[in-house]
């Protein structure tokens, strides 16, 4: 068949080739096409044509390579499960040496307690405090998120600037919503008016660079109901919960093939209510979860997938410049 004159829609032809390359049987592919209204004879003809195409044969070689990697990651996942990998550890009083050896270099998440006890922010931070001290400072926030399912990946479409006091008024009256949020990708920390907020923080001794320069940390502030969809970061992150509670779910980096990656660092899976008919492999994913209370910190290793939902009006701070021997580790993904 001349592929340029094929009556099958290009989207279906791409779907057909992708699924055959991933190992789905020709019978199952044909059944899906027929159920979608494709003539059975055309479906068989397209399947045959795809199998003979040199581009598909090249794609099949790539798919086999990735299949081998996924099989290796499955083995690694099984071994980690036997080594306590199905539980999210909670530690208090840990030394920097043990943190870096077991968690940072061991690529394990962990909840750390007791590291924020000396933060002035733990006593000071509240919406009235922000209003009194910083109400006139202009801040950047994300708005109109509910109308766009891709808001997390398309943040530039939702940026808005307003006086901090206006944003705080919205937080006070919003109730539970995902529509407004001060997310990390902004320049708020670098604004001179908010600089005193950094004085309310303390770098965890021996773990984080104590200089706390604006580019080394981020501020997240929003109402109950804000959701950061399942995604991963390309660096190690230490998140400290100052106000309110956050529900966190994590999936290991080495189970990437079970979370259906989307737009590089995001996932197709709604980790709050997974659609296992559409994403069946997620049923095999290792999902660790915790509710962070004020004063809790969670270490998110580079590449680990995480979903976060605020249960209350919430303020969090993230750090990403660790005092690790040998330097920080980053993921330089090609896509």
From TrEMBL:
Pfam families: Cupin_8 (PF13621). InterPro entries: Cupin_8 (IPR041667), JmjC_dom (IPR003347). Residues 172-335 form the JmjC domain. This is Cupin-like domain-containing protein.
């Amino acid at each position: 068949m001349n592929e340029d004159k094929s009556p099958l829609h290009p989207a279906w032809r791409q779907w057909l080739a992708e699924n055959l390359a991933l190992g789905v049987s020709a019978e199952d592919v044909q059944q899906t096409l027929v159920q979608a209204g494709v003539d059975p004879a055309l479906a068989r003809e397209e399947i045959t044509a795809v199998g003979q195409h040199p581009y598909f044969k090249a794609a099949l070689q790539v798919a086999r390579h990735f299949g081998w990697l996924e099989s290796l990651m499955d083995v690694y996942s099984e071994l980690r499960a036997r080594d306590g990998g199905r539980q999210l550890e909670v530690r208090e009083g840990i030394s920097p040496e043990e943190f870096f050896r077991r968690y940072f270099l061991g690529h394990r998440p962990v909840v750390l307690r007791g590291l924020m006890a000396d933060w002035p922010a733990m006593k000071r931070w509240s919406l009235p405090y922000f209003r009194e001290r910083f109400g006139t400072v202009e801040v950047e926030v994300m708005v109109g998120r509910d109308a766009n399912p891709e808001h997390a990946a398309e943040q530039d479409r939702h940026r808005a600037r307003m006086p901090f006091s206006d944003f705080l008024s919205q937080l006070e009256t919003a109730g539970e919503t995902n529509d407004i949020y001060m997310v990390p990708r902004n320049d708020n920390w670098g604004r001179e008016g908010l600089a005193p907020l950094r004085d309310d923080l303390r770098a965890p001794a021996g773990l984080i660079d104590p200089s706390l320069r604006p580019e080394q940390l981020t501020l997240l502030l929003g109402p109950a109901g804000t959701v950061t969809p399942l995604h991963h970061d390309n660096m190690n992150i230490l998140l400290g919960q100052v106000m309110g509670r956050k529900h966190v779910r994590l999936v290991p980096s080495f189970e990437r093939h079970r979370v259906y990656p989307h737009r590089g660092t995001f996932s197709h899976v709604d980790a709050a209510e997974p659609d296992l008919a559409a994403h069946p492999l997620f049923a095999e994913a290792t999902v660790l979860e915790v509710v962070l209370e004020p004063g809790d910190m969670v270490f998110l290793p580079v590449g680990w997938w995480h979903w976060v939902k605020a249960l209350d009006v919430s303020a969090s701070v993230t750090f990403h410049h660790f005092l690790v021997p040998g330097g920080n580790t980053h993921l330089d993904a090609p896509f």
